[in-house]
Write a structure and sequence with these properties.
- By secondary structure, the protein is mainly alpha-helical.
- It folds into two domains: 61 residues, no CATH class; 454 residues, MFS general substrate transporter like domains (Growth Hormone, Chain: A).
- It contains 22 helices and four strands.
- A two-stranded antiparallel sheet has the order 1-2. A two-stranded antiparallel sheet has the order 3-4.
- Strand 3 and strand 4 form a beta hairpin.
- Its main location: membrane.
């Protein structure tokens, strides 16, 4: 009805509205207004910023009303069914986007997991198995392995597959952030998820099609890595569009557990078929992310304006109660940065100037290069465990392949706890770099314990993996979010929402280079024994710690300055 009152056939009299007699030429306009009013819910219409006309002329078309058409079909259905028409709409949509992006990135990680599980079947010890009637197991001890991985250099072949995948992922990440800024995020996310699912399925179809070409597996890994790189810039930018610079450390700490949840589900799902039909260990996760990509096209709301909501609050004091002012903490390299803020969340860059930034300009932002190098080594360690842990468990405990897959999920369960604990402690102390530094130091004895006592017994192995996941994966998750938090406070990014995708892509892309080289190095070093692998992982953790020493120093100096101020009061 509000739209009818605003139409040109109504004009305002002295004290009431008096209808004008509509002529024949605007009869179609009446019908269009009524149809448009049917599509716009009551609250959206009531919140319109248009003013009622006073002179009988047609008012300008509302921008909000045009933007309503940008909501996808699935959201239009939800608006009719369950979305509240009260002041809680903004909160409802934020929770909705948080849950959606969590599910999306869970499926991304779920589809990355199968290869690490299937490695134990592609090359295995065939002596306990009954050979076929016409085969001679004495001449071919790997008759049950899948060619070409039955060769003695299978470790190197697996390392090449991992390297091809993550190198393509890392390079794709740089371009994915650049493209995500300039395209519709809903379409970009759908395209990436469907492509990732397709090439995950193609890897599993090698068993059904009886493909034994190593080049085929390398090509599938390369294209799969490229499509997988679309995930992180997309989900982070979506969260940024809806939450602005709100700092909800615990909530975002839980949200960031999507990585470990996806790894756990991927290990469990792949482990179901690993012994009988390893191809389905790829096909089922591929179908899951492919179907989820179709749902993303129906239900993703890219920004609040699409559903007639205002942009989130991007200014204000984001410090924890009692935390020192940013004026107390100035650095030569980073400019003015509040390092005492809660860093255990996905901080976002304020929305205002929506001009995309170039990669060279993003690299000049203080802090991007330093944090990226740190993430390189942290992610190298984390993904070495992700890709090689089932094979290590199989070698030290002699358990079945499906049991090795389930045990490897214990490490990811520890990572969930570690990410949340690191976020809570960071919120309480305001010193994310120091928290990460302490966990990096604890990682060294944790790796030594796994190396020495990992094969002692299954209960001991479970305890060590749980603690190791907490200590090793916790800093990796916190570093990823802390980087965005520090960059979000930098003056050079104020008012630029589209910078988030590029900055995130550079940081995670550099970290993904570590994810490529770490497992590759582990595969090559493992030929000398698993002890050499653990020593190299310990060295990588210490190098990551060195990258944070300046930030740790500034956090301690700022904390001491605050203590002196409090003492002088």
């Amino acid at each position: 009805m509000a739209s009818l009152l605003q139409a040109p056939w109504f004009s305002k009299g002295r004290s009431r509205f008096r209808p004008l007699i509509p002529s024949a030429h605007n009869a179609r306009q009446i019908q269009l207004v009524m149809e448009r009013q049917y599509l716009v819910d009551t609250e959206d219409a009531s919140e319109s910023t248009e003013f009622l006309p006073t002179d009988g002329r047609r008012p300008p078309r509302s921008k909000e009303r045009r933007r309503t058409n940008q909501a996808p079909v699935g959201v239009l259905i939800l608006q009719r069914l369950c979305i509240p028409t009260t002041a809680n709409r903004a909160l409802w949509y934020r929770v909705y986007i948080l849950v959606l992006t969590f599910i999306f990135y869970v499926t991304y990680h779920l589809s990355r997991r199968p290869l690490s599980i299937v490695k134990t079947v592609l090359h295995q010890n065939c002596s306990p198995l009954t050979p076929p009637a016409k085969s001679n197991p004495a001449e071919n001890e790997t008759w049950c392995s899948w060619k070409p991985f039955e060769q003695s250099n299978n470790q190197e072949l697996f390392a090449v597959l991992d390297f091809a995948y993550w190198l393509a992922y890392a390079f794709g990440m740089f371009f994915a952030g650049h493209i995500a800024e300039r395209t519709n995020l809903r379409h970009f996310l759908t395209f990436g998820m469907m492509g990732a699912g397709l090439f995950t399925i193609c890897f599993g179809m090698a068993q059904i099609w009886e493909i034994h070409s190593f080049s085929y597996f390398v090509a599938v890994q390369i294209f799969g890595g490229i499509f997988q790189s679309t995930g992180w810039p997309s989900v982070v930018t979506l969260v940024g569009n809806w939450f602005g610079k709100k700092r909800l450390g615990l909530i975002f700490g839980v949200w960031n557990s999507h990585t470990s949840v996806g790894n756990i589900l991927g290990a469990v799902i792949a482990g179901v078929w690993v012994n009988q039909n390893w191809g389905y260990s790829f096909i089922i996760p591929g179908l899951i992310i492919l179907v989820t990509g179709l749902l993303a096209n129906l239900f993703v709301v890219e920004k609040p304006e699409d559903v007639l909501l205002p942009q989130p609050d991007h200014v204000g004091d984001n410090r924890l109660p009692g935390a020192p002012s940013a004026d107390c903490l100035r650095t030569e390299e980073y400019g003015q940065v509040d390092v005492q803020k809660s860093d255990s969340d996905i901080a976002v860059i304020s929305v205002g100037d929506n001009k995309p930034i170039s990669i060279p300009r993003a690299l000049r932002i203080p802090g991007v290069v330093e944090f990226s190098v740190c993430l390189f080594f942290a992610k190298a360690v984390s993904y070495t465990f992700l890709l090689w842990l089932p094979k290590y468990i199989k070698s030290v405990s002699q358990v079945e392949n499906d049991i090795a897959a389930d045990l490897s999920a214990i490490f990811d369960a520890g990572g969930i706890v570690g990410g949340i604990v690191a976020g809570v402690v960071s919120d309480a102390t305001g010193a994310s770099a120091t928290v990460c530094g302490v966990m990096f130091l604890l990682a060294a004895p944790s790796l030594w314990l796994i190396m020495v006592y990992g094969g002692y017994s299954i209960p001991v192995l479970i305890a060590l993996l749980l603690f190791g996941g907490l200590i090793i994966s916790g800093p990796y998750a916190l570093i990823t979010t802390a980087v965005s938090a520090d960059l979000g406070t930098h003056p050079s990014l104020t008012g630029n929402a589209k910078a988030l995708a590029t900055v995130t892509a550079i940081i995670d892309g550099t970290g993904s280079m570590g994810a490529a080289f770490g497992p590759l190095a582990a595969g090559l070093i493992s030929t000398r024994g698993w002890d050499a692998v653990f020593y190299s992982l310990t060295a990588a953790q210490l190098v990551a710690l060195m990258c944070l020493t300046r930030l740790i120093y500034r956090e301690i100096r700022g904390w001491l300055a605050v203590r002196r101020e409090v003492r002088n009061l």
